[in-house]
Design brief:
- There is one protein chain.
- By secondary structure, the chain is an alpha+beta fold.
- The protein contains 14 helices and 11 strands.
- The strands form 4 sheets. The protein has a 4-stranded mixed beta sheet. The protein has a 3-stranded antiparallel beta sheet with strand order 3-11-8. The protein has a two-stranded antiparallel sheet with strand order 5-6.
- Helix 4 packs antiparallel against helix 10, helix 5 runs antiparallel to helix 6 and helix 9 crosses helix 11.
- The N and C termini lie far apart (53 Å).
- The structure holds protoporphyrin IX containing FE.
- The site of protoporphyrin IX containing FE (HEM) has 27 residues, from helix 4, helix 11 and helix 14.
């Protein structure tokens, strides 16, 4: 990618991809970094749902897990334990929100809030304190929430390695113990779903991968929901929208995944563009969520659209097809409940808010300040 492209991508990734679409003569957009992006909902559907593009293992777990069946089992087992432990997440919300100072810096404060409520679900309270301390450090030190600067990412390698080592010991111990009842946390769920021959360290790495896959997008979706709702409603009255509409609209207006990518397995033609095996083709949820032909007024953040029966286009904040996110529903519940807890008995306003996105592993908000004033 040329320096100019890189700079524009960093400065405003969403404007950058919209500009590529405007300048593209076809529905198959050439990406300067290599690969292609499908700007058309019908083509996107073929890519994400077509069997030929979604066969075998998904790219999400890389080579960590041996088969597609194990990948699916891990995703479902983790989703099930989170769903079963939602009451504990809820119980953790009140003290975590209550402990927030009136003025907080986001998205960092939202990251800490979400992690605090999830900590006992990721590693149950009976886990050795040393392991839980390394998990806390990982959440603070750029291991879970990707740091923006290269030197910060390099520094995160130490706590990452320490956490993996501590988790590996935990996996060894838990494998030696007999446990008859339900999984107590995400690590138990991962252990139950992984085959016995999988190395302890690999299981630990899968746990860390799930730790990040849950915590980072839930926290980013919460931050977008807070920012967008506050910027679009500035009077002293409570928000006029139900919380679930605020969250759904935030996931539409600023979906977290940047590109959903597939590798072409055999010669394929999309809208006249010939692609070869090995070519990388993506779908941009942002472009599809802002398609003027399919959505009414797509560039406006308007939670009330979710109470209307028409004017909705393709909606894929959690992907679509065989590799779609298994945690979609539980994630949406967590974001909605966290936002409800934040807004309860309080008036929220934002300063230094900027709706342009920053690029991390997904689309995350730029820093802003949240003022939370108690009303009761
Ligand atoms: C707001 C929060 C979340 C967002 C926005 C999100 C989004 C996504 C997206 C877009 C994909 C991939 C799709 C693709 O390549 O087509 C994905 C995959 C995945 N997500 Fe989520 N996710 C969230 C939370 C969660 C949670 C809570 C879990 C816990 C179960 C989870 C587990 C996974 C797994 C295991 C996959 C890989 C699926 C596979 O390849 O079989 N995610 N997620």
């Amino acid at each position: 990618m040329r320096i100019g492209d890189r700079r524009r991508l960093r400065s405003d990734p969403l404007e950058y991809v919209e500009d590529l679409r405007r300048r593209s003569a076809t529905k198959v957009i050439r990406l300067p970094g290599g690969g292609w992006c499908l700007g058309d909902p019908a083509l996107a559907r073929v890519l994400l749902r077509g069997q030929e593009f979604n066969e075998g293992r998904s790219g999400f777990f890389g080579d960590l897990l041996p088969t597609r069946a194990v990948q699916v089992e891990v995703g479902h087992a983790v989703r099930d334990v989170l769903r079963a432990r939602l009451p504990d997440y809820r119980a953790a919300l009140a003290p975590a929100v209550g402990g927030l100072p009136p003025v907080t810096r986001w998205p960092a404060a939202g990251n800490r809030l979400v992690y605090r409520c999830l900590a006992d679900l990721l590693l149950h309270p009976g886990t050795p304190a040393r392991t839980r301390r390394w998990a806390d450090r990982a959440a603070d030190a750029g291991v879970v929430f990707r740091a923006s600067r290269m030197w910060q990412r390099a520094r995160a390698e130490v706590p990452r390695a320490r956490l993996i080592a501590a988790l590996t010991e935990q996996v060894q111990q838990r494998r030696r113990q007999h446990r008859a009842d339900e999984p107590r946390d995400v690590l138990d769920a991962v252990l139950d779903a992984c085959p016995d021959h999988l190395a302890d360290r690999t299981v630990a790495t899968v746990h860390l991968m799930m730790f990040r896959a849950i915590t980072a997008p839930v926290a980013a979706s919460l931050a977008w929901s807070v920012l967008l709702a506050c910027l679009h409603h500035t009077t002293d009255s409570p928000w006029p929208w139900p919380t679930d509409q605020i969250v759904r609209e935030a996931l539409r207006h600023r979906p977290i995944p940047w590109m959903l990518r597939r590798t072409i397995p055999c010669p394929t033609t999309f809208a006249g563009t010939s692609l070869r095996p090995g070519d990388r083709v993506s779908v941009s949820p942002h472009l599809l969520h802002h398609d003027r032909h399919r959505w009414t007024d797509p560039d406006t953040y308007r939670p009330e659209r979710w109470a209307e029966s028409d004017g909705h286009g393709p909606y894929l904040p959690f992907g679509a097809g065989p590799f779609a996110c298994p945690g979609a529903s539980v994630a949406q519940t967590m974001v909605t409940e966290t936002l409800t807890a934040l807004a309860e008995g309080a008036h929220l306003t934002v300063t230094r808010g900027d709706t342009r996105a920053a690029m991390s592993e997904g689309i995350v908000p730029r820093p802003f300040i949240l003022h939370r004033t108690r009303t009761e």
